[in-house]
Amino acid sequence: MRLVYVGIGWVIGILLAANVSAIIPLFWLLALGITVTFASLLRETPYFWWGLAVFAIAFGGFRYTLVPQSSDLAQYNAVGGATLEGIIISEPDFRDDRVQFQLSAETIQFGGESISTSGLVLVNAPRVADVTYGDVIRVTGELRTPAEYDTFSYADYLARQGVFSILDRAIIEVVDTNQANPALRQLLQWKTVLEQRIADALPDPESALLTGILLGNERGIAPNLSDDFSRVGASHVIAISGFNMAIIAGLVMGILEKPFKDRKWVATIIGIIVLAIYTILVGANAAVVRAAVMSSLLVIAPQLNRRSFVPASLAFVSILMSLFNPLVLWDLSFQLSFFAVLGLALFTEPLERGFDRIIASIIPHPYAKRVSAFLNEPIVVSIAALIMTMPLTILYFGRLSLVSLLVNLLIVPVQAYILFFGGSALLLSLISPQLAQLIFWLNMLLLQWTIGVVRFFGNLTFADIEVRLSGELVWGFFAVIIGGAIVNATRPQWAIRLGRRLQRNPILPTMTFIAIGLGILLLNLTLARPNGDLHVWFLDVGHSNAILIETPDGSQILIDGGRFPSRLLTEIGDRVPFYDHNLELVIITHPDEFDLGALPAVLRRYNAQTVLVNGQPNLSETFTEVEIAIADSEVVPVVAGYSITMDDGTLIEVLHPQVRPELDDDIGDGAMVLRVSYGEVSFLLTSDVTQTGQFEMLDSGQWLGASVMQLPQHGTARSLNEQFYEVVNPQVVVVQYDEANRRDDPDSDVLLLTQDAQLFTTGEQGTLHLWTDGRTLWVVSEDI
């Protein structure tokens, strides 16, 4: 358990450093010195490991501050075409429409000058490009920043690999070859040969599935089949995991047991080397490395005459992997793999005992054990893993499989045979392809069974359902489970006394739980009450407009919403009281799918009482879906001159369009412009209004002044009329944009016009919260 405490402290330190950017590296250095002294003072006491855990917090926080947040190369993102020269350091990933690989850049030619640089770039080139690992190439294309999508941040995913730039539309010239690690190059060549042997022996989709199971290359699996595996909760079958590693470790150690009977350490070293080679062969992602290290510990443990303690091993692996790269803690494959193994460690034995009792009560004694042994792995193991992985699946994907348990019951028993026969056939194919073909065909029957079961259940309409959980709830669940496991393992005196008291008075825990729950609900209700200020949030939903307003009396107003439903729902859910499912006012400024694509999902969760629109028709599918979603609301087309004065003093004025736009009019010319005022403070919300619309507002003669101004069209080039800006004369300017946008927004010339105001951007600062009591304005970034 001591290593578990250290591991928990280490992870807490990394998470603190990641989420509290105000803590600087110097603080962590000072904390390291203090905690080292603290731990040394406790060295001869029973509390030494607690001191070491506190030291781990400081060390983990300091380690995170050393993680690169960008690269030298990234400064050239979004500046146009560029030519890079460097070496390919990853296995090229050949997809249906392109080939993708990582390039370690050494020089960049920009503006007619060759400049030394450094950093990794993800290159997207035509599929016909003849490249391989270790090639030195000269590549020309467009450098850009990785994007963030609805439920997936590609930028964060690549950052965990040290990549901060993408180069698209690449034109490649090979300068030299065979310049990288020769051993790895040879290993990748063998992998290509093995993949081809499988392709020659089996048709698709069986060939693609076996390649994914054995070699970790899932690219050949058709998207619809891959979706079916996800829907039925069987994606773990096509991912290299601890299951694969355990079988390989057992097989290797079984083969080496007799030849090295008197030299077990030699067998152990060979086994670890084989696992390391296989890890590199299949891609060495976070989950694979974790599984390999865990399997290596299981191989080493017998030589130390120690039973491997899984939680301690997990803690060791987590510390080891995050020591090299702290960002691995955010890797989904690592999280799923980690919690699956933890679930097996915590729940397998108690579930097996309960399952055995159930089987014994149903089936006669002579057969009960056999049936129980046969069903234990697919049922008990699956449930134990699902307990800890299901919350993550719901959190990240918003889906819950209703057939997962039954599907795993049907396919898990054959997976060990698929791995064994497939691996045997693959190795035998290097010696005798004809004999190997027979084994491949036998294995094909097992692959067809797996695919058939997955397709059958995946086609059921009720195979999975949409479910949403907040991140706080999921991580709170894990904290309770891990905390309970620690208490159960250490059995401190206070826990023993509490357990005895609860046994004597079983009503007490129920009443305590209810009291705590009511207390938390009461606190949430208190915090959710309006405080008499006007709150305006410019939401970070990518390169789109989305603004949430809470008036002084608590009315909720949503303006546009972007195109990513999950991101918008999360932003709203974090700010609207949990018990409130009403939006008093929804405003759709113009029929642009980039600014309203997420609204149908929101309007299925929240009741929009009144909807303001600019009245412009649109024939797109997205706008049609929005019209259906607002059919039950009061829809009011508005033009300049329309206003709403709320009981709490909030004033909402429509300043544009001057007349109702027609179907063929530019959607930016007629975009709705609003001014929201409370007391002496006002917000000019310009949406995507063009310079044409800005001229029309100037010509109308209406007063346009405001304290805060949203830059129109995300500050793109030629989006802001200088005279219009001077008339508004804002003290604060807000820009909503995505750093990965391909238009290089916001434009430097546009920002130059606003240099006399204080500038805030969602691209750099995340969601922006502005609030006012009618006299004073406060601004804060909620993502820092």
Describe this entry's structure for a reader.
The chain has 784 residues and is of the alpha/beta class. Helix content is 49%, strand content 17%. It is built from 26 helices and 24 strands. It has an eight-stranded mixed sheet, covered by helices on one side. β19 (681-685), α23 and β20 form a beta-alpha-beta unit. α2 (25-41) packs antiparallel against α3 (48-65), α12 runs antiparallel to α13 and α14 (404-428) runs antiparallel to α15. The radius of gyration is 30 Å and the shape is globular. 40% of the residues are buried. The model has no long low-confidence stretch (mean pLDDT 85).
Total helical segments: 26
Relative strand content: 15-25%
Q: Roughly how many Å apart are the termini?
A: 34 Å
Q: How confident is the prediction overall: mean pLDDT?
A: 85
Q: Supply Rg.
A: 30 Å
> What summary fits the major beta sheet?
8 strands, mixed
Q: Largest sheet, order of strands side by side?
A: 15-14-13-12-11-10-23-24
Structural class: alpha/beta
The residue ranges in which pLDDT falls below 50 over 5 or more consecutive positions are: none
